[in-house]
Design goal:
Distance between the termini: 35 Å
CATH superfamily: Ribonuclease Inhibitor
CATH topology: Leucine-rich repeat, LRR (right-handed beta-alpha superhelix)
Shape: globular
Strand order of the largest sheet: 1-2-3-4-5
Order of helices and strands: HEEEEE
Radius of gyration: 13 Å
Oligomer: single chain
Largest sheet: 5 strands, parallel
CATH class: Alpha Beta
Strand content: 5-15%
Number of strands: 5
Length: 122
Amino acid sequence: MEELLSYMGQLNALQKLILEVCWNLKDLPSSIGQLNALEVLDLIDCSNLKELPSFIGQLKALQKFVLLGCSNLNELPSSIGQLNALEVLDLIDYSNLKKLPSSIDQLNALQDFGLSSCLNFK
């Protein structure tokens, strides 16, 4: 899986990246930041993912970002505010989330924001 992800940046027309239930995924390779056409990034139940890198903000076409059940993530990178096309942000059951970055208010296209079962949210 990790070897496949290292080549992701070369998939210029990729619009959806579904990485559901990838329990061994601990971090995202920087090559994902090169996916200029990516509209959907789905990381449901990637429970060992420890950090979201700042290159997430480079995904200018991203419309839907799902982090349901990513229980080891503590925070969202501040670069998330750069996702101008983002319409759906789903943080349901993101149990270690403590706070949202202040840049979240820059998501002007956001229409659907899921934030439930985030037990440590302040």
